[in-house]
Amino acid sequence: MADLGEISLWIGLALSCYALFGSLAGQVRGIPALVDSARRSVYVLVLVMLVATLSLVGSFINRDYEVAYVAAHSNNAMADIYTWVAFYAGNEGSLLYIAFVLSVMSAVAIRWAPERVKDFLPYTTATLMVVQVFFIAVMAFMANPFTKLPFVPPDGEGINPLLTHFGMFFHPPALMAGLIGMSIPFAFALGSLVAGKQRDEWADSGRLWGIVTWALLASGLLLGSWWAYTILGWGGFWFWDPVENAAFMPWLALTAFVHSIMVQKRRGMFRMWNIVLINAAFGLALYGMFMNRGGPTPSVHSFGASSLGWVFLLFLAVGVLVPFAIFIWRYNLLKSAQNLDSMLSREAAFLVNNLLLLGIAFVTLWGTVYPLFIKLGGGEEITIARPYYDQVNGPLLLALVLLMGVGPLLPWRRANWASLRRALLAPCVVAAVTVVVLAVLVTRQPFALTGFGLCALVTTGIALEWWRGMQARHRNSGENYAFALLRLIGANRPRYGGYIVHLAVVMVALGVLGGSLFDTQRDVVLAPGETYEVSGYQLRYLDTVQAPKSDRTDYFSTLELYRGDEFLGELEARRSFYPSFNMASTLAAIRSTPVEDFYVVPSENLPDGSVGFRILVNPLVWWMWVAGPVLILGTVVALWPEGSRQRVRIARPETVSIHPGETRPNVV
């Protein structure tokens, strides 16, 4: 299997090089047959990379410890279910996963590219193959996952204990796919630039793949938060760790791009700006992969560290400088078809939204790299902690939520203050009532009141947009409200899919506000039979059962939870100690409700039978995990292909208000 995998790598390298140079030569020399041949080699590349991937997976399943990577990331005690996790647990396997995903995405993007991009598709193909050649070459020459040991050990070293969690089946693959998926919209933009296109031929493909990549990164980030929350024992979901930031920053830049490309599609504006955004997003994605492959900043994700950092740093430099050099070369071709008519318009809201997102990305980047500058300057090694990010990014994120509530209510081109006041009256009233009620009953923290008020404003604005649309359809066509809602969403999927995603963002904001500002934490040591009271709960520790395994010892602690006289249920928390790694992993016991989570995790097992526990009460965190499926639903709705729609004119002559200051005939 290892020999087959290594042969596949070299064939894949040859195919990707042929696709790269064949696309360029065929386009420049005007040889369509060569362009077609290069394109077909991209399709064959998928099969070759699949063989390499299955070869490594097969080596794990067969416990082929002659393969160094298999011996380093599995052992006889590892359950077969974790084979897929072990596959990308280290640099070599994760590089193979990235190369395979890129080959699949590239083949799909090229095969189903719209007709309007065919003129510059060879340049897009060449761009994608540059990235593909880099990853396969790094594996072939520096980090070969099929390298063999000079002897066959009887057992392997084992998988990192922190990776034995359900979330690891999805969190790393989604993030890695999102980071490398950034290459697709970037390649369409760069291909259009190199070909000297002056119109918006690449905008549809850029938007489609931008949203797909955005959803992958967002899902990966949420799943990573869930993993950290349940297994790391922090009691929290975000630590502003350098590697966390490395995935968060390209997501911010891509969020700006996904919004801004809509303006280019609709009005032919922001052409230069969108090229800058996608270049920045691609550069930040390369930075994210650099941080995961031996970046110099310390991180809890240290299992990904290696000596490959300088190679990825060099590729990062090329991936930033070359695209911006091409942008400067083609600068004169990127003039927008329209100018910004008014700062009180949806286009202006998108622009401000972009600036806020990039501001948050810059603040996060500066906090990540500042310790490096200090160290390079001969200063003491420092770490930028959470207070910096919270204090600087917190107000920017609140401003972003405010804009998320106001922007969709603005019309294109120009609004007036009277129509804006009418549109915002009800959302502002609901937000004000929310703030007053919370101030009287719950808290008077300004940051919390502002955050919850803005969440109420955004939710109310979206609800009113749906309600007005449903009412119009019900009044004009007699549809019942449920059917009217479905038809309303189907009539403009990108718009209403975006609203669903905005609701998911509000859910995340609720979880962040509740879990960050109102959490209660206690560290206690309990003997069997003892009870501890916190935030109205009574936690009674029963006992701990010790379960030795071949590679670890599991400690299962059983507890009972009460609120007053009400028995809420039995909880079981787990702590596992791995002697070969000299480390412990935990699995928290969590009782989760929409109101709050009761969270308990064992921190230490003492000889006398008592156990140290960390107990937390985290309000509203449940909403963060619900946000994930809602976000995916919104993305699917936004991307669902438009079917053929028959337009039927309703007999009633009056008009229906679509946005403040905008009307159109009553047409279904």
Set down the secondary structure blueprint.
Elements: H1 2-29, H2 32-61, H3 68-73, H4 83-87, H5 91-111, H6 121-141, H7 171-181, H8 183-194, H9 203-231, H10 242-267, H11 271-292, H12 309-329, H13 346-376, H14 386-406, H15 417-441, H16 446-477, H17 481-491, H18 493-517, E1 520-526, E2 531-534, E3 537-548, E4 553-563, E5 566-578, E6 583-587, E7 589-592, E8 596-605, E9 611-619, H19 622-639, E10 655-659, E11 662-665
Antiparallel strand pairs: 1-9, 2-3, 3-4, 4-5, 5-6, 7-8, 8-9, 10-11
Helix pairs in contact: 1-2, 1-6, 2-5, 5-6, 5-7, 6-8, 7-9, 8-9, 8-11, 9-10, 9-19, 10-11, 10-13, 11-12, 13-14, 14-16, 15-16, 16-17, 16-18, 17-18, 18-19
Oligomer: single chain
Give the count of helical stretches: 19
What's the count of strands? 11
**Basic shape:** globular
Radius of gyration: 27 Å
Distance between the ends:
59 Å
Order of helices and strands: HHHHHHHHHHHHHHHHHHEEEEEEEEEHEE
Unreliable parts:
644-668
Biggest sheet details: 5 strands, antiparallel
Query: What is the residue-mean pLDDT, rounded to a whole number?
Result: 87
Spatially, the strands of the biggest sheet line up as 2-3-4-5-6
Percentage beta strand: 5-15%
Helical residue percent band? 55-70%
Structural class: alpha+beta
